[in-house]
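--- STAGE predict ---
source: upstream dedup step, 1 unique chain passed
mode: sequence only
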Amino acid sequence: MPEDQGLAITGEERMSDILALLGAEGNVTRVLGELSGLTIYPRSVVSDGGSLFFLGRQGISRRLGILMPSGAEPTFDLVRRSVAVGGEHLALGLGDATHANASALRARLSFMAPVPVGMRKSFGLGDRLGIATPGHIRALRQTRGIFPVLAQQSIREMERAGRTPEQVMDSATWGVLQEGWWAGYGADADHIKTEADIDACVAAGFIGYTLDPRDHVDDAAQTDSLDTLALKFDSLPWPRLATTPDATRAAYLGKDWNLGGGRSLTLGEEELLRAACKYGRALAHLSAIYRHLQQAMGGRRFE
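--- STAGE serialize ---
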């Protein structure tokens, strides 16, 4: 081997050596199965230039496998043992499909982590059971131009299903590895209402957030008397809205907005009061929770 001759060898060259060794022994998937004792998902075999990652099944459980140079120290929760392939000594690590290993995969392999959807044509798949992502990906391969949001579930749905943000994210991660989906995916934490919801979803790795202010909408403002509306208007959380009652009146009263198609909108006192009282506290809540999200993400991209 080159190391014995005192020559430097790169991770990519080392990985090529491992693949070549496996290929020389026969079908790569079959050889990995014999080494690991797992039924290998063929599409899951992928390298990062230094180690070979794969996912296999043992009974009804999925297990992560990593084949690596004998001196490698991966940041995964694995049981390691030495294996010989083509006369070379390598290390084989096997571990359960745990949250720790899913997190390590997202950190190690960039294509395993979710990315912002942006303006791409997308579809929210939302695996509610934690077992449907592989099927979703197979369906995606029959389409063109659709960017999948594979990790998508509302806090309400998680609570009803007895799931956590970590479980939703990890289910998508293992499905991505199983099916060898390297084209990217999104992760949307839906119907977020509280700072605690944000903290849990940020910790799990979500990068898309749909904020839900419905609990702060004052539906009674739709039918309140003008006297009641005036009192509610004055008591809105103006510091959190970063404005004042007088400034709001000056900004909106009597102004015309062209809505297109020959339509326009002009706000009078009553219309302004009803709109402000109905949605003012919701806007204040959104502003506060968005600032919390910015802080929790710590400069990382999100949408």
